[in-house]
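Predict the 3D structure for this chain.
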Amino acid sequence: MNTTILPRSRVARFEAVLDSRKRKVRGLWRRGDCYYAQLRVDLGNGRTAPRRLSLEANTLEEAKAALRKKQTQKHEHKLCAPGYRPKFEECADNYLASQTLARKKLSTQRSERQAIARWKNHIGGIRIDKINAPMIHSYREKRLALKSRKAPNNGISERTVNLDVIALRHVLRFAMDGALIDDLPKIRALKPRPPGRRPLVTKEQFNRLLAAATEETTKNSRLFRYYLRFLALTGAREKESLAVRRKDVDFARGTVTIGADGASKNSKAREIDFSPELEVLLKEMIATLPPDTSWLFPSPQRGAKDIHAQTLRESLKAVRKKAVLEWVGFHDLRHFFASQCVMTGIDFMTIAIWFGHSDGGILVGKVYGHLADTHKQAAAQKLRFFG
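Done. Predicted structure below.
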């Protein structure tokens, strides 16, 4: 193999950049097609020295703007110091051991750790300042090509891949705060495929689930039936419902608090007002609770410990199979609650408060307010336009 070595005279040299009037642009240099900013920077040892820093610019105007940005970063003490740049895996480990991550919810920590482990397999050996948009794009393409257990025909969803990229950005932002990189790679989030329209659980189907929850189907049948009714009558999510305590039920005020200990999705507590059926359910549940538990849904395997049930998904699988409703999930009961509220005529803002939304009911109307066909047909029959 022949190797050609360019003579020193042909190696691109740094040249001063001139403006349209042939005047030198102070602090701006060029070598070949690349622009550089020359600034006096802190070496980290009490000394300063002039250094040329590469700029992401293709034109003179872009180079001037990038130079001003570097100067602003220097003035605000945010300019990356020259010198050693660690690999991504080292920065990732530092982030995972930081208080930045430790202050997040345990479920968020778990998700980010899993995503960052995948990134370490992909770019772990790359220097933190060399990570770019094409590397991120190649990772996304690989993830999208994988088959998902939940959707084997569609692969990993765009939303899941976007969450992975968010985890990467947290590591890169952590590195930026440590003056290891200047900026984050610019890449747009993937646009998720619109979800398929799930059928609405009917009252008849819900009663079939309850009837199928027998001792022969699941050993936690009574607890599971209470759980299904609680989800359907409150619209609460799966995990936050399991974490409701006995003291969160206030019969005097007629409310049950969801997320009192920060267990809700947005870590904020919210109150759901009693409907007549919810009040009957909660009185029945409180009356049958073991005296040594503080939870509405105590763990069947708690032993001497006072802990709540962690999951009832195995019971759900068995019950919905017996009821021939294998498409039903716990989240469908949240849709059921919202739709029943809408069809009853409750305003979207009130439903949003019960749901813990802060958008005044926009999401309820857009996502959770789909109505049963029979309700729409009955509503249409009430219309009178000409007397």
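The longest strand covers residues 34-42.
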